[in-house]
Write a structure and sequence with these properties.
- The structure holds two protein chains of two kinds.
- Helix content of chain A is about 30%, strand content about 30%.
- Chain A is an alpha/beta fold.
- Chain A has a single domain, classed as HUPs (Rossmann fold), CATH 3.40.50.
- In chain A, the strands form two sheets. In chain A, strands 9-8-7-10-6-1-4-5-11 form a nine-stranded mixed sheet, sandwiched between helices.
- In chain A, α2 links the parallel β4 and β5.
- Chain A starts with a strand and ends in a 5-residue tail after the last helix.
- Chain B is about 25% helix and about 25% strand.
- The longest helix of chain B has 15 residues.
- Chain B is elongated.
- At the A-B interface, α3, α4, β7, β8 and β9 of A face α3, α4, β7, β9 and β10 of B.
- β9 of chain A pairs antiparallel with β13 of chain B.
- Chain A: It comes from Cephalotus follicularis (Albany pitcher plant).
Chain lengths: ~250, ~325
Amino acid sequence: MKIMVPIKRVIDYAVKIRVKPDKTGVETSNVKMSMNPFCEIALEEALRIKESGLATEVVAVSMGPTQCVDTLRTGLAMGAERGIYVEAKGDLFPLSVAKILKKLIEIEKPGLLILGKQAIDDDCNQTGQMVAGLLGWPQGTFASKVLLDKEKQVATVEREVDGGLETLCLDLPAVITTDLRLNQPRYATLPNIMKAKSKVIKKFTLLDLNVEIKPDLEIVEVREPPKRKAGVIVSSVDELIDKLRNEAHVI
Amino acid sequence: ISALVIVEHEGGAIKPQSVSAVAAAKSLSDDDNTIAMLLAGSGPSLHLAASRAATCHPSVSQVLVADSDKFSYSLAEPWAKLVHLVHQRGGYSHVIAASSSFGKNVLPRAAALLDVSPITDIVEISGSSQFVRPIYAGNALCTVRYTGANPCMLTIRATSFPVPPVSSDSKLNEAPISQVDLSTFDEDITGKSRYVGHTSQDTERPDLGNARIVVTGGRGLKSAENFKMLEKLAEKLGAAVGATRAAVDAGFVPNDLQVGQTGKIVAPELYMAFGVSGAIQHLAGMRDSKVIVAVNKDADAPIFQVADYGLVGDLFVVIPELSEKLPGKK
């Protein structure tokens, strides 16, 4: 069985973002970019499944500007066998991403699609659910535990839901989206980084895949959130309780 | 505007976030919007929930009920099909759900079936097709305009759409309840995912996402043992307990307590942070709280820049003192 893992290139988790003065978006030039943390978890899970002998190959996919190839290289250095890069300019919203993934899945025929539950840039949390809908595959979102049964061709997925954990059993092929506590992703070692340089990344264009981008969303503006006004420093627990009771009225 | 609100219910009661979704639907325009609520499930609790839905908000014009065993466990596959089916019959301009784990799971899948782009996690509605949503975990706000075909599909953050208290004359306004005809409901997908089980957190304390008060511990608490002090304080206040990623990574508490960019986003009335330095990833998860209290021994900790009330001091003195002096939950 093959596992496909889409990965997204985003502003690094540790960078403090800056909104562009013209409000068209967030500054991304001269900013450190990395693989989306949830995508790292997805890739790690796929690699662990492969290493346990339940899958034969992990294919990493990325789409967008040319630099996505760097992110794919990171994925290959972590242990994916092959990469697929889809060249696309401009904003790619989740519906388009899901349609592109559907085409790639029709070509590659993986038994499992594992992806991050959301990207830490646009925070949409949509793509996995949408590609599952388009394919008619079952979905296990926000996974904190994944168990595969090769014989029965099912995946048992423990999901992080509001106020607890839910367990589902999904027939393969299926879509799984990863939550934070699923695993701790590995670091790419230097020998593996070197090895990744000779791994194959296949390139597609939207034209090759015959995917039409539907422009049904427009970004009007991006602005900074309102600043909180500076508060006061109190000197004792008694003063704090007094403020909370008589000024803020919250207790 | 004709909106369809996807409703969550449990034990015969409508979840408060679904009533917030109705409030959001109401705010789409100043005109008389028609708002239909869609409930699915099976058994007597579904019908009890439906009767409560009919009077939960004065703007509700219709309650639709899909009664079938297929909906016993809120799975995304049959629910997305149901939304698709109900929209085909009703031709709604908007389909709205709360940004709960249920709404996030179901709505994008339903949007894919309807071939439209959903807009998730909305915090502000400025007209029937223009919405504000946080990006970069709330470090920026993005205004988006929907220009596609009907329906415009949204999930809303319940904390941004408060529900006005139900007035006493709400009994006069009882929306009609009708059954969804499921005779053409397509079965093919519904067997591919099966509910196995559910484990819930201890229900003594409120859920982190909906609690009125949240007390959070950071690395400053130093150990899992010390978190018990915080739990005691939470118990007294009727508050939920949260933690920073640093505290989770250090193994003090499980990850489901994490507040921040990669954890839960909360916006309670009172947020009390103990031994939290205030990393941007953490601030992203709690910056919309109404009142923020920070207690830290380091006077330069960035958390003090967002706190309404700061107290520089030793946690291990302050927490027990607060537990003793604060009034019990109402």
